[in-house]
Amino acid sequence: MQPNLALIYFIFGGLLPGATSRRKQMDPGPCELPRSQGELNSFLWTIRRDPPAYLFGTIHVPYTRVWDFIPENSKAAFQASSSVYFELDLTDPYTISGLASCQMLPHGENLQDVLPRELYRRLKRHLEYVRLMLPHWMTPDQRGKGLYADYLFNAIAGNWERKRPVWVMLMVNSLTETDIRSRGVPVLDLYLAQEAERMKKRTGAVERVEEQCHPLNGLNFSQVLFALNQTLLQHESLRAGSLQAPYTTEDLIKHYNCGDLNAVIFNHDTSQLPNLINTTLPPHEQVTAQEIDSYFRQELIYKRNERMGKRVMALLKQNTDKSFFFAFGAGHFLGNNTVIDVLRQAGFEVEHTPAGQPIGNTTMLPSHVRITNGYITVNPPIWFPNQLDQRPRSDLPFHHQPKSSAAGRLLAPSITASFYVAIASFLLSLLRPS
After folding, report:
1. Residue 351: in which H helix or E strand, if any?
2. Could you say which residues form the signal peptide (predicted)?
3. By the 8 A CB rule, do 58 and 195 touch?
4. How far apart, in whole angstroms, are the C-alpha atoms of residue 118 and residue 325?
5. Measured CA angle at 366 (ends 360, 370), to 5 deg
6. Which entry of 18, 147, 233, 281 is 20 to 30 Å from 94 by CA?
7. 3-state SS assignment for residue 398
8. Contacts of residue 12, Cβ cutoff 8 Å, sequence gap at least 6
9. Per-residue pLDDT at 279
10. Is 198 exposed, middle or buried (0-12, 13-18, 19+ CB in 10 A)?
11. What is the DSSP string of 302-332?
12. Who contacts 358 (Cβ-Cβ below 8 Å, separation ≥6)?
C-alpha cells in the first residue's frame, strides 16, 4: 500500500473540487489483452519453500471482467496447490449469517429511533429513488438468469431500517447502477472459492467475520452520523449531475488488468470506505474525517495485515508438507506494512512472480482456457443455519468444515443460483474480502 497520504486522499478525496479532473488524469483508457503472457500484470508472489506457497492479489469485481488478464502461471499456482485460503470462508453460510447479524441494531431498535429526523428523511428518499431506478439498471441477461428488481432490492435493502447506520452507509455506497449491473456473476474471490471446492481442495480462512465486522461497529455515533451524511451528500450530488464519481469500479478493473500497481486504488478496494473528506468542510468536520480515516486505516488495513500474516505463518509452519494458495485483496500485498512485510520480517523469503515465469512443480494451464459461462451454478444447495450459535468452534486458522443440512434449511427452490450469488456477493462486498 502506497504512502499514507495517498491512502488518505483516495479513501476520502471524492468530494474535493478537482476530483473529476484527477479521475481523467488517472484513467488508463481502453485496456486490451496483451499478445504475450509476459506482458500481463501479475499479482502473484511465491513464498520459497518445498512445496511452494503462493500469495495472490484479488479485487472484488465480477471474475469475468478480469479472468482473461490473469496470467496462466497464477492460474497454474492455484491449480497445483492442495490448500486454498481466503480472508473469509466465502462458501460457508455462517459467513453470510454472521455478517447479517453484525449489521443489525441492538435491542430491536430502528433507524428512525436513532437518526436525526432530516437525515432519516433524506436516506429514505434516496432508497426510494434506488428502488425506482433498479429495474432500469438491471440488464436483460440478469433478468434472464432469474434476477428480478423487487427480489434484489428486498434482499439488499429490505430491512434497512433495522441496520446500524454505518452499514447503511456502506449499503448506500454499493447501491449504484454500476454495482447493480454486476450482480449475478461471482466476484473473483467467490469464484476462486467455488472452484477450490469443485476441485476438492482443502479450503479455509484466516479471519472470522467478527474480526472484520467489529471495527466498523467501533466508530462513535457522531462519527457515524458524519460519515452517513457525507455519503448521502455525495450520492445526492451524483443524482443531480453536479458531481462525477472520482473513481469507479471500471477504473479499478482497468488498473488491475492493465498493470497499474497503484496501491491507492487497491487500498480503496480493500477498505470499501466511501469518500468523505471535503476541503470546504469546516475545520472541526475535517478533523472528524481525518479521525475516521486514521481509525479505519489502522483497524481495517494495518492490524488486519499483521493478523493475516501471522496466521499465514502458522499454517505454513504447521503444514510443512502442503502447498498453499492464499487469495487476499491485492491491497494487502502492496505498499507498506503489508502481509508480505510481516512474512519477510519473520524470515520467510517472498518474491514477486512475473507473468510468464514458470512456477515450481506445476504444469502451465493451456492458453485456450477461458471463460465459458459467466454464471456459476451453486451446487450443492446453500445451507443457512437457523441459529448463529450453531457455528462450529475451531482454533485458528479456520479450515473448511462440511456443511450438514440437518440443522439448517435449504434455499427455496424458487431462489436461483444467480440470485444467491448476487446476494452473497453484495454481503461480502460490505466487508470487502479483498
Report:
1. strand 350-352
2. 1-21
3. no
4. 49
5. 120
6. 147
7. strand
8. 273, 275, 276, 277, 289, 292, 293
9. 52
10. exposed
11. IHHHHHHHHHHHHHHHH-TT--EEEEEEGGG
12. 73, 364
Average pLDDT over residues 340-355: 97
Tell me, what's the pLDDT at 48?
Answer: 97
HSE of 283, CA atoms in CB hemisphere, 13 A: 0
Residue 377 CB neighbour total at 10 angstroms? 11
Give the torsion sign (CA, 295, 296, 300, 305): negative
Contact, 89 vs 400, CB < 8 A?
yes
Nearest to 384 by CA among 406, 364, 417, 410: 410
The mean pLDDT value for 279-293 works out to: 82
**pTM of the model as a whole:** 0.76
Q: How do beta strands 83-86 and 324-329 pair?
A: parallel
State whether residue 204 is helix, strand or coil. Answer: strand
Grid coordinates representing 379 are 451446487
- Which of helix, strand or coil describes residue 358? coil
Cell triple for 255: 488498473
- Cβ pair 129, 239 in contact under 8 A: yes
Secondary-structure breakdown of the chain: helix, strand, coil percentages, each rounded to the nearest 5: 50, 10, 40
Angstrom CA distances, 185 to 145, 197, 278, stand at 10, 17, 34
214's CB contacts (< 8 A; 6+ apart) are 102
Axis crossing angle, helix 165-174 with helix 117-137, rounded to the nearest 10: 30
Q: Where are the alpha helices (DSSP H) in 319-412?
A: 339-345
Using CA atoms, how far apart are residues 173 and 196, in angstroms rounded to an integer? 30
Q: Which residues contact 374 (CB under 8 A, 6 or more apart)?
A: 62, 64, 141, 185
Task: Quote the cell numbers at residue 184.
Answer: 449475478
CA dihedral 96, 213, 211, 63 (to 10 degrees): 50
Express each pLDDT in 367-392 by its tens digit.
333 333 333 333 333 333 333 333 33
C-alpha cell at 319: 503444514
Contact yes or no for 202/194 (Cβ under 8 A): no
**Which residues have CB under 8 Å from 27's CB, separation 6+?**
251, 254
| Overall average pLDDT of the 25-47 stretch | 74
